[in-house]
């Protein structure tokens, strides 16, 4: 009775938990407030490309264990059962009717003899082998270690690519936010001027065309802001995609543009002349050279003998009647070793070895060419960065000049010594200067990421 109560109580509890689970709402979107480094760290844990690279590292670890296992004892067992519906026979001369010392007639027709009148057999066998010496196995152990290192470096390369992508997307959001701030400032100024001009028009001091001209500029500026807001939302979605974050979650950036030191490490680029060795691409090519060398070494090891120890134990039940099959167990065992000695292959191995040695030389040439390519890429990235940095500084000055021109044009217009066209042109020049500043700002931030990547500073 107590057992029934316990079971009933457990079932009732399970049904209650299930009911609560069905009534509770699904978890909603999460809110994150991330710095740039927070966003990068999140991407390292959640970006699918990084996850796959981490799985490749685990797979390489299992590959190492698999290769090591080939040099450990290999043990296999088998069980067989045979019911000979028709017993096997052997063929030979008839020796049953010969007299002692009589030689069988080799020209006589052959006859068949039963190969043991056994109907049932049941065999149990266990066999083991142990590799004693193999040159290819020794080289294989070296190769899988390099292969594991290759997978680890591939993970680093994936993280670097993810780091750069997240950083650029983060900067894009910051720049879009800065663009909206500039647009808001221009809209406030233009709205104030439009209100003042409208009031002056009602009093008969300015023409209606001046109001219309400002209205067109104001409407265009508002439309530009709306488009930029949508672009900002899309940029935020792109950042979450690069991070591997669900697009439904909300992401707030806590870094500001003023937190970024765009002039950092500019003067350090010409100090380290061997910086290309820090590039993960160069280190991957180093692994490629090692693997080609090990391929040639493994082929050379095929000229050496292979020695394998082996042993086995077999037990067998044999009987013509099923009821007596398991009465007697016949056993035998053995130990020994095999030596495989390559003697002559018609020149196949030596020519294959020569081909692999050529592959080694080609891999070394690719490594040398990569070093030059990385140096050229770094110099190109440095030049692009400096050009963009100078353009940004120039656009900052242009922006200040455009603001001053607009200020003076308004004063002249208000004092009656300037025209509304002059003010409109100054307003247009300021908007153009702001757009060029935003473009230059984004270019210098992106080129800084490319510069750090080119010099192997992204870890």
From TrEMBL:
Q: Name one GO cellular component term.
A: efflux pump complex
Localisation per UniProt entry: Cell outer membrane
Is Transmembrane tagged as a keyword? Answer: yes
What SUPFAM superfamilies does the database record attribute to this sequence?
Outer membrane efflux proteins (OEP)
User: Which keywords belong to this entry?
Assistant: Cell outer membrane, Membrane, Signal, Transmembrane, Transmembrane beta strand, Transport
Question: Where is the signal peptide, in residue numbers?
Answer: 1-21
Q: Which GO terms describe its molecular function?
A: efflux transmembrane transporter activity; porin activity
Q: Chief localization class? A: membrane
Report the sequence similarity comment from the record. Belongs to the outer membrane factor (OMF) (TC 1.B.17) family.
Please state what the protein is called: TolC family protein
Q: What is the lineage of its organism?
A: Bacteria, Pseudomonadati, Bacteroidota, Sphingobacteriia, Sphingobacteriales
């Amino acid at each position: 009775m107590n057992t029934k109560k316990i079971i009933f109580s457990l079932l009732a509890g399970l049904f209650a938990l299930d009911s609560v689970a069905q009534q509770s709402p699904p978890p909603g979107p999460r809110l994150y407030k991330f710095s740039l480094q927070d966003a990068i760290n999140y991407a390292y844990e959640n970006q699918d490309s990084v996850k796959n690279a981490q799985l490749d590292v685990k797979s390489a670890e299992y590959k190492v264990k698999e290769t090591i296992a080939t040099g450990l004892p290999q043990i296999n067992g088998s069980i067989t059962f045979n019911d000979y519906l028709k017993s096997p026979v052997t063929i030979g001369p008839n020796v049953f009717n010969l007299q002692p010392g009589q030689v069988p007639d080799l020209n006589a027709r052959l006859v068949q003899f039963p190969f043991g009148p056994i109907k049932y057999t049941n065999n149990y066998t266990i066999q083991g082998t142990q590799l004693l010496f193999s040159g290819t196995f020794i080289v294989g152990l070296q190769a899988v270690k390099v292969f594991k290192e290759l997978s680890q470096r591939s993970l680093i390369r994936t993280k670097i690519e993810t780091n750069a992508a997240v950083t650029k997307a983060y900067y894009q959001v910051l720049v879009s936010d800065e663009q909206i701030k500039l647009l808001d400032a221009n809209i406030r100024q233009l709205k104030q001027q439009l209100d003042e001009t409208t009031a002056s028009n009602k009093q008969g001091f300015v023409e209606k065309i001046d109001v219309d001209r400002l209205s067109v500029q104001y409407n265009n500026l508002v439309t530009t802001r709306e488009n930029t807001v949508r672009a900002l939302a899309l940029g935020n979605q792109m950042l979450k995609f690069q991070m591997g974050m669900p697009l439904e979650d909300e992401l707030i950036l806590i870094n500001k543009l003023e937190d970024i030191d765009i002039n950092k490490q500019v003067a350090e680029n010409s100090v380290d002349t061997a910086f290309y060795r820090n590039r993960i691409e160069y280190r991957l090519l180093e692994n490629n050279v090692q693997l080609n060398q090990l391929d040639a070494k493994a082929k050379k090891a095929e000229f050496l003998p292979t020695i394998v120890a082996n042993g086995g134990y077999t037990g067998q039940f044999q009987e013509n009647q099923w009821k007596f099959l398991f009465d007697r167990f016949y056993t035998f065992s053995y130990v020994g070793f095999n030596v495989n000695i390559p003697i002559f292959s018609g020149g196949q191995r030596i020519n294959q070895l020569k081909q692999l040695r050529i592959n080694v030389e080609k891999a070394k040439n690719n490594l040398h060419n990569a070093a030059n390519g990385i140096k050229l890429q770094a110099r190109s990235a440095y030049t692009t960065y400096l050009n963009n940095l100078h353009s940004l500084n120039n656009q900052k000055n242009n922006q200040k000049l455009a603001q001053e021109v607009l200020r003076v044009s308004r004063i002249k217009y208000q004092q009656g010594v300037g025209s509304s066209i002059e003010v409109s042109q100054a307003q247009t020049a300021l908007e153009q200067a702001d757009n060029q500043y935003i473009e230059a700002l984004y270019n210098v931030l992106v080129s800084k990421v490319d510069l750090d990547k080119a010099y192997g500073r992204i870890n």
